[in-house]
Write a sequence for this structure.
């Protein structure tokens, strides 16, 4: 429908999404929204042909529009979860010929073969979720699948503070070097285009080569007999060589430099790799700052692809107010990747991504399901590139997962694109550093609980006679009215008279017993007419202290005191509970 309510005109010709499974074929072809392609051959699985066909049909349904798998990354991950199950079935004597032949005993046998780790839990969840889409799956198998898979989260832990600082320093150094290189060459190009460079010299030739690079993605080149390309001889001296650092790296990030920038995003914002890869270009807004200087506010649009509904999308406002602000990273990232987006626009491709990189090695994404390419340009963080960068600085593998855990658990200390329950259960509770940091918090909580329990015990001193200098209050006598444990030292105590029973300065004589028994009765009556939360917060402690007093005096003394309540006692307590004595 158009915005005015009229039906839109259908395009000419046949337009439909290509089928992922056609005819008798057992090959599923998945094309996602970003144009990436992945193929999966179910005929290669060592199970009966009817079982192959059933799995292929279920898999194809998930890959279809609206099936749930919007990315080839998801389908490729599911494929590598399903293969081990198929190989397991192929090794079993009397293996089922199709899904309806699967038994609960066979499923439980496979389940017990899985490691009680994250990978085992993922395999169990992926295969069960796929098979349950088939109505022929026997009910006993469904019940077996519904049983909880007991597993532990494995050994991945957050980085120690010195490790985190080392990695962050290394990744900043990598990106900073690339930014300065691109900034310098961009300035040279702008001067050349503005006519500020004298024609004919090497600096002019460099500007001309950079102009071609900015428009096409490569410096002027000629084909070689070997099939490759090489910079024209005319520009080699001005460029300083024919290697990547002398040619296309002058204006574009490399694949590993973009991966380093992705790691830096994770270290700054606690995002996961998929979200970082898909970050669109934020639109900045100018806001007034201190000293008359304006700052920038970026709104990051975040998408958690594995979630559905309202939790799938969120946004964060990031401010660039100076060199030490989080928004400065966004400003510098946009500056470093702007030439690449400009080159894509020159070629007719409008790409709304922050992370854009250049790579001379051509491929079509067949064996790189996580990579999107347009000509020599790629987008997002490629897993292999992140590992390559990590190895270059002495790390055993990509730091992105552990970095995200470190930031969200120890630095931001809040959930990042997951529920609070998942954040607490999966990230915080198993983390040794969080456990260590929680020790003083738990100790303080226990101390607070002890203090709260102590406040429910009568602290006023029981005496038989009135002491010299003692002043009367609405509930007890007071031996030191100017030095209260509840309020600062001053002319008089400003605490509520309900706290007198919790004060070591208070004195309770037999003359106070009737009044306190009436207060106890009135507080008990309040519990029946106010909400429980209100009574607990305002009256429960005072009532508990009077309960303690009753236990100390004994039933006989307490009963005798209740019979001695006077009209004056009732009037004083009523005024106290009505707030007439409050300051």
């Amino acid at each position: 429908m158009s915005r005015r309510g009229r039906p839109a005109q259908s395009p000419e010709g046949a337009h439909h999404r290509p089928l992922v499974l056609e005819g008798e074929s057992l090959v599923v072809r998945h094309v996602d929204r970003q144009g990436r392609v992945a193929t999966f051959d179910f005929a290669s699985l060592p199970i009966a042909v009817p079982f192959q066909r059933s799995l292929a049909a279920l898999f194809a349904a998930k890959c279809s529009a609206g099936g749930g798998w919007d990315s080839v990354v998801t389908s490729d991950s599911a494929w590598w979860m399903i293969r081990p199950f198929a190989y397991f079935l192929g090794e079993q004597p009397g293996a089922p010929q199709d899904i309806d032949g699967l038994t609960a005993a066979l499923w439980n046998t496979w389940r017990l073969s899985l490691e009680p780790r994250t990978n085992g839990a993922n395999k169990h969840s992926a295969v069960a979720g796929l098979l349950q889409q088939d109505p022929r799956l026997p009910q006993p198998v469904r019940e077996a699948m519904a049983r909880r898979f007991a597993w532990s989260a494995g050994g991945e832990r957050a980085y120690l503070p010195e490790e985190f600082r080392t990695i962050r320093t290394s990744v900043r150094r990598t990106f900073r070097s690339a930014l300065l290189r691109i900034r310098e060459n961009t300035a040279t190009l702008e001067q050349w285009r503005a006519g500020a460079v004298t024609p004919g010299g090497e600096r002019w030739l460099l500007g001309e080569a950079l102009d071609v690079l900015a428009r096409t993605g490569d410096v002027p080149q000629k084909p070689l007999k070997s099939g490759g390309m090489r910079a024209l001889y005319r520009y080699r001296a001005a460029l300083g060589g024919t290697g990547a650092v002398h040619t296309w790296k002058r204006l574009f990030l490399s694949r590993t430099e973009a991966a380093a920038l992705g790691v830096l995003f994770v270290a700054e914002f606690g995002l996961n790799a998929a979200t970082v890869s898909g970050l669109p270009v934020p639109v900045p807004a100018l806001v007034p700052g201190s000293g008359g200087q304006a700052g920038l506010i970026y709104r990051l649009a975040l998408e958690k692809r594995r979630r559905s509904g309202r939790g799938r999308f969120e946004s964060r406002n990031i401010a660039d107010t100076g060199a030490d602000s989080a928004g400065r990273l966004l400003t510098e990232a946009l500056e470093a990747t702007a030439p690449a987006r400009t080159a894509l626009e020159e070629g007719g491709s409008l790409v709304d991504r922050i992370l854009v990189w250049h790579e001379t090695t051509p491929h079509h994404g067949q064996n790189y399901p996580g990579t999107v390419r347009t000509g020599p340009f790629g987008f997002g963080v490629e897993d292999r590139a992140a590992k390559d960068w990590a190895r270059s600085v002495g790390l055993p593998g990509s730091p992105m997962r552990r970095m995200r855990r470190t930031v969200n658990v120890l630095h931001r200390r809040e959930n990042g694109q997951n529920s609070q329950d998942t954040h607490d259960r999966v990230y915080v509770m198993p983390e040794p550093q969080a456990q260590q940091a929680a020790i003083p918090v738990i100790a303080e909580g226990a101390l607070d609980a002890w203090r709260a329990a102590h406040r429910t015990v009568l602290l006023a001193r029981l005496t038989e006679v009135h002491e010299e200098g003692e002043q009367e209050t609405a509930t007890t006598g007071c031996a030191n009215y100017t030095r209260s444990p509840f309020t600062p030292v001053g002319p008089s105590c400003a605490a509520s008279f309900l706290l007198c029973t919790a004060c070591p300065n208070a004195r309770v004589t037999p003359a106070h017993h009737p009044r306190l028994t009436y207060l106890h009765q009135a507080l008990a009556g309040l519990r029946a007419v106010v909400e429980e939360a209100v009574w607990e917060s305002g009256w429960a402690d005072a009532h508990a202290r009077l309960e303690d007093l009753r236990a100390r005096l004994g039933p006989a003394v307490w009963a005798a005191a209740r019979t001695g309540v006077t009209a004056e006692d009732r009037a004083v307590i009523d005024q106290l509970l009505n707030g007439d004595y409050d300051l």
User: Anything to note?
Assistant: Residues 154-280+326-418 form one domain. The CA atoms of residues 33 and 136 lie 31 Å apart. The first helix runs from residue 49 to 63. The two ends are 67 Å apart (CA to CA).
